[in-house]
Amino acid sequence: MSTAPATTTRRVDSSPEAAVLRLARPYLRRLVGAGLLAAATEFAALALMATATWLLMTAAGRPELDRLTVAIVAVRALAVSRGVLRYAERLAGHDAVLRLVTDVRARVFATLAARRGAPPRTGDALSRLVSDVEAVQDLLLRVLVPAAAAATVSLVAVGLTALISPPAALTLAVGLLVAGVGLPLLATALTRRAAAEMAPLRGALATDAVDLTHGAADLAAFGATAGALDAAGGRARRLARLERRLAARGFAVDALGVLVAGLTAGAVVVVALRTDVSGAWIGVLAVGTLAAVEIALALVGAARQWTGLRSGLARVAPLLTPAAESRDTPAAAGEPTGGRDNPSTERRDVPRVRFEEVTVRYRAGVPAALDRFDLDLPPGRRIAVVGPSGAGKSTLAAVLTGAVRPDSGRVGLDGHDVSTYPPEDLPRAVGGLLAEAYVFHATVRDNLLLGRPDADEAALAAATEAAGLADWVRAQPEGWDTVVGEEGGQLSGGQRQRLALARALLAAPGVLVLDEPTEGLDPVSADEVLASTLAATPAGHSVLLITHRLTGLDGLDEVLVLDAGRVVQRGPHADLVDAEGWYRDQWVVQQAAEHGYLALSGPHRP
What we know:
Blueprint: H1 16-23, H2 28-59, H3 65-114, H4 122-164, H5 166-214, H6 216-221, H7 225-274, H8 280-296, H9 298-325, H10 343-346, E1 353-360, E2 370-377, E3 382-386, H11 393-400, E4 408-413, E5 416-417, H12 426-429, E6 430-433, H13 444-449, H14 457-467, H15 470-475, H16 493-507, E7 511-515, H17 523-536, E8 542-546, E9 558-563, E10 566-571, H18 573-578, H19 582-601
Parallel strand pairs: 3-8, 3-9, 6-7, 7-8
Antiparallel strand pairs: 1-2, 1-4, 4-5, 9-10
């Protein structure tokens, strides 16, 4: 019985910084410790300058050595402690931030991998995973921690100055406000617009670099190399202009900072002299003021850094928010999100798949890729989908895996709409080998373990055996640790396909989707791999096989023939071969072509 849709309240972060700070909560104690160590380091530097100044000016009067002993020991202790505290602060801060960045990068990768619709460009995805994620690290280490330390030490400096001369402390406070508040606001205003343009430009340049490197042959073939280089060069020159503009404005703000430090020190000395402060304390106030303002000027650097990071953080935050919110929403706690129970807690391992009047049209005014398509795939059933190119076969796989949303109709997994299925659970329910499966620049073992990270070597061997890759792995000197190259560049097309197929078999989703699993293989190898793949599929799991080859389909329960997004024939292989239509015509053509291939290749078939 259905229930009324429940209202789901989601907490939305108001800024990209808020999204990052929410993820930083588990490491809050480490970050607070790093901030306290940073403040102690800056205070040690300030105290060192003040103590050393008092020692030098007092020693000039040749007093008794007893008066200088404490100051001498203090200078040595502060000098040593400054270095020790700085090392401890860097160690604590980087420990916390690197842990956080590991989480952030994993979340960004998972969100990009699970994102429905068109995938991001390779260069843009790389920019988000590297430079934009590093903005998270810089936000904490170069903005928040230094800013908190500078603000804390500035307050302490004003308090200590008040013990010597309250009017001088008030003067110092004004100078610190100008240096720590006014100048950072000025720096932010001067750099905000230019900094906002830099992260997208860097992402575009990363895409250009990938396109120019990997697409060099295609660009040359179409005579487009010069145009692509000009476009990339234009973006590079624009980025260089922005960086020069930021550098010039940063120099101007830094020069103002030096001027503010000098004027504040002079004003403090004048006020101190008028309040009868004399002797070594005048020097202490002058040098201490210079040191305090210099520490406060770290807020200018933090503001400038924050301005430059905001555009990168804005590109990362949308990829973090769903993962960060999932623990705080009713859906994540097992409460209903609509008229059905949450599939992450109620679904079976092998869901029943139902396509109900599904229509997909990629652009207005063009024929539908799927046109009111219906399909019932219960657990344990094995169905093949065939048809001419452009019939909608790959669209069918994309809709089932959530990569494409239908314009109308519904795809259900045990009654739950696939569009609302939890992204972290969907690959276990539906997955497999899709068109152009990606092979990473890593070892054979690492590529396979993406399918099931806890798999042992026996499971790896079984999957590669079923995919027909085991002999090749055994022949490699490095075995499982053989590096396959960028995008599997060290493998042939057939080996790359078998590696991706082995990964899909290792993952063993409830509904195994195989989109052209034998593409690039010769007929005999294709038959062997298809038979071993079907045999390796766990009992009770469903199979949706999308293929252009009709050989080997007699072992499946049903075959659907698609044409223009509609089912034009369906039934067992034997019945379709006997009936008039596209299937029988294609069967005759393929059998003739493959018999001719075998006759020509003879005993030396590759």
